[in-house]
């Protein structure tokens, strides 16, 4: 029996779009491939009438059910696995997958988890900061000019997800930690790094970026995120206890010195 991507658990997230017609065309492409949801993050010049005109009747239901969020973290908060799209390569943009390989990976993940495929604005794509919120990166190979039209890119990814099949024995991937849970964990890790002076204060983001990159390789579950956060809280408690013990010892030492005079 073939296994497929659960398209109902897949959402296309369009961040910082500039042209309403591009939203409509992207939604039409997503609807054609059975994508479950389209989410807009901080859209500019949003005009539902212009969006629907391009989406046509076939995608009107998907468009009318769109969620519009003010920020990218808000748009991605409830998703368990996030894939960022990028045309630019190199540096910190270590692309994990081609569209076909990505689709194969998402077959077991999508059965029990909500998956977001994130696309950036038409003129410049996603920033490095945006991509920090992603577990995987995907690049669409192209000859010559590497940047595709937004709707074209949505169609390529959605098509690969729709047609992906595998005969491999199914292995179970349970519900993973959502973006909100992960971001709270990273905040506590950063606070812990600061407390134990594990961060280069001239470039404080470098250590956390490497930590994000490392932990994103693993499919962290909610209980594993809770375990890491519990460790951070215990480090904070221990550090506070050591500080208070030092203050008490210092005060006692000062008092003893005065008494022996």
UniProtKB/TrEMBL annotation:
The keyword Flavoprotein does not apply. Pfam families: SpoU_methylase. The keyword Transit peptide does not apply. Its EC number is 2.1.1.200. CDD domains: SpoU-like_TrmJ (cd18093). GO terms for molecular function: RNA binding; tRNA (cytidine(32)/uridine(32)-2'-O)-methyltransferase activity. Signal peptide: none annotated. GO terms for cellular component: cytosol. It catalyses: uridine(32) in tRNA + S-adenosyl-L-methionine = 2'-O-methyluridine(32) in tRNA + S-adenosyl-L-homocysteine + H(+); cytidine(32) in tRNA + S-adenosyl-L-methionine = 2'-O-methylcytidine(32) in tRNA + S-adenosyl-L-homocysteine + H(+). It comes from the Bacteria. One of its GO terms (biological process) is tRNA nucleoside ribose methylation. It is found in: Cytoplasm. Residues 10-159 form the tRNA/rRNA methyltransferase SpoU type domain. Belongs to the class IV-like SAM-binding methyltransferase superfamily. RNA methyltransferase TrmH family. Homodimer. Catalyzes the formation of 2'O-methylated cytidine (Cm32) or 2'O-methylated uridine (Um32) at position 32 in tRNA. This is tRNA (cytidine/uridine-2'-O-)-methyltransferase TrmJ. It comes from Desulfobacter hydrogenophilus.
């Amino acid at each position: 029996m073939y296994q497929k991507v659960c398209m109902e658990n897949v959402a296309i997230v369009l961040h910082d779009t500039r042209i309403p017609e591009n939203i409509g065309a992207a939604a039409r492409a997503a609807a054609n491939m059975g994508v479950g949801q389209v989410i807009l993050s901080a859209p500019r010049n949003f005009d539902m009438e212009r969006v629907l005109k391009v989406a046509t009747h076939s995608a009107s239901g998907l468009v009318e059910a769109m969620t519009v969020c003010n920020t990218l973290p808000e748009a991605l908060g409830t998703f368990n696995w996030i894939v960022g799209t990028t045309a630019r390569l190199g540096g910190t943009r270590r692309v994990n997958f081609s569209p076909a390989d990505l689709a194969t990976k998402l077959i077991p993940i999508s059965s029990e988890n909500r998956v977001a495929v994130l696309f950036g604005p038409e003129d410049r794509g996603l920033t490095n900061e945006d991509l920090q919120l992603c577990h995987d990166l995907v690049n669409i190979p192209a000859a010559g000019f590497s940047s595709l039209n937004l709707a074209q890119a949505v169609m390529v990814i959605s098509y690969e997800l729709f047609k992906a099949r595998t005969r491999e024995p199914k292995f179970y991937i349970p519900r993973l930690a959502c973006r909100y849970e992960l971001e709270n964990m990273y905040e506590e890790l950063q606070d812990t790094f600061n407390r134990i002076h594990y961060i280069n204060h001239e470039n404080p983001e470098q250590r956390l970026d490497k930590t994000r990159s490392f932990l994103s390789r693993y499919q962290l579950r909610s209980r594993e995120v809770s375990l890491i956060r519990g460790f951070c809280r215990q480090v904070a408690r221990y550090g506070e206890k050591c500080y208070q013990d030092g203050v008490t010892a210092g005060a006692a030492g000062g008092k003893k010195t005065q008494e022996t005079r």
